[in-house]
TrEMBL record:
SMART domains membership: PDZ
Gene3D superfamilies named among the record's database cross-references: 2.30.42.10, 2.40.10.120
GO biological process, one term: proteolysis
Keyword vocabulary terms for this entry: Hydrolase, Protease
Positions of the PDZ domain: 263-354
The keyword Kinase belongs to this UniProt entry's keyword annotation: no
Gene Ontology MF terms: serine-type endopeptidase activity
UniProt KW Protease keyword: yes
Name of the protein this chain belongs to: Serine protease DegS
Native source organism of the sequence: Marinimicrobium koreense
Length: 372
């Protein structure tokens, strides 16, 4: 075979190999060297065992028990009924549930979902090493579906939580938990999206979305990166019934850790508050004001005595920025205010009758939601 023929016969295999190498580097950026070039000294990743070894011992199984009084027969107090069915002591029935949790503090503090332990009379925690103990409920935040538990054991493995977390769409992620009570399992997927909201799962939504298999029992478990670092707390799945369809959601780790610190210190999550009601800016309103996008909200109500009223906001104003950060369609601004410590000074940028105005105010503390 001539040299030219040899090169032609090798063309497709070489091109295919180069394409595979390029796709590998795109999928695994950790394999690149300085300036994004391939790093020949680092072997290709063929296993996530090291990440699991770091993270799995910090993920626990949670079993809850709720005692319910059995309902009495509606005619139980009728003399005729009691003649044939003498009254007996009230019977109790135990209702069990399961979930997962993550040890995030060497003092024994755990994060899990509020819906995992809601109404529980007893909470049992099973550790990765086989130890079992009862957990104490420190506090909950139903508005973000988070709860903090405390266990009193020595030699606990704590998951690594980077500050801040670096979660990017396309990252490989691992979900660790106890689905269906079968025992701890690990599933793998990619981070599909960030900042998901309007899912009606909780009041404050800023979810990570992943296609890693998450099922009943995974709630409260860990979503980690390929280094075993915590990215989020697995919370919910999307689909009919309780079976994974490849769309699941996790609370970002930085939000969860902020809630944990607030609950430990104050017994609840303290959130910032402006005291106003808004609705998204329509395309027609944005066009009328010659705005390039609908990134803004229309103020529809201002609460009496609120920081918004003190700033001079009035219904009809269009709020576009808080401290130079765009409020988006409202959800981003809501989360930004909630994460701002009460007493902090902020600058509000608004449009009033088409004219830009800057207002100053001090963030207040969000009132506690009314109990039901």
């Amino acid at each position: 075979m001539s040299a030219r023929g040899l090169l032609q016969s090798l063309g497709w295999p070489v091109a295919t190999g180069l394409l595979i190498a390029l796709l590998t580097l795109l999928a695994f950026p950790e394999l690149r060297g300085p300036n994004g070039a391939p790093d020949p000294t680092r072997p290709a990743i063929t296993s996530y065992a090291d990440a699991v070894d770091r993270a799995a011992p910090a993920v626990v199984s949670i079993y809850t028990r709720k005692i319910q009084e059995q309902q009495r027969h509606p005619l139980a107090d009728h003399p005729f009924y009691r003649r044939f069915f003498p009254e007996r002591p009230q019977q109790q029935r135990a209702q069990s549930a399961l979930g997962s949790g993550v040890i995030v503090d060497p003092r024994g503090y755990l994060l899990t979902n509020e819906h995992v332990i809601n109404g529980a009379d007893e909470i049992q925690v099973l550790l990765y090493d086989g130890r079992e103990t009862r957990a104490r409920l420190v506090g909950t935040d139903p508005e973000s579906d988070l709860a903090v538990l405390k266990i009193d054991l020595e030699d606990l493995t704590v998951i690594d939580v980077p500050e801040p977390t670096q979660a990017r769409v396309g990252d490989i992620v691992l979900a660790i938990g106890n689905p269906f009570g079968v025992g701890q399992t690990v599933t793998q997927g990619i981070l599909s999206a960030t900042g998901r909201y309007n899912l009606n799962l909780s009041e404050y939504e800023n979810f990570l979305q992943t296609d890693a298999a998450v099922n009943v029992g995974n709630s409260g478990g860990a979503l980690v990166d390929i280094h075993g670092q915590l990215l989020g707390i697995n919370t919910a799945i999307l689909g009919e019934g309780n079976t994974s369809v490849g769309v699941s959601f996790a609370i970002p780790a930085d939000s969860a850790m902020r809630a944990l610190r607030e609950i430990i210190e104050h017994g609840r999550v303290v959130r910032g508050w402006l005291g106003l009601e808004v609705r998204p800016l329509s395309q027609d309103q944005a066009s009328a004001l010659a705005m390039n996008s609908t990134q803004g909200v229309v103020v529809t109500a201002v609460y009496s005595g609120s920081p918004a009223e003190q700033a001079g906001l009035t219904p009809g104003d269009i709020l576009t920025h808080i401290d130079d950060e765009s409020v988006g369609n409202g959800r981003r601004g809501m989360n930004q205010i909630a994460a701002t410590a009460p007493g902090s000074e902020v600058t509000l940028r608004i449009l009033r009758n088409g004219e830009p105005i800057e207002l100053e105010t001090v963030i207040g503390e969000r009132p506690l939601p009314a109990s039901t």
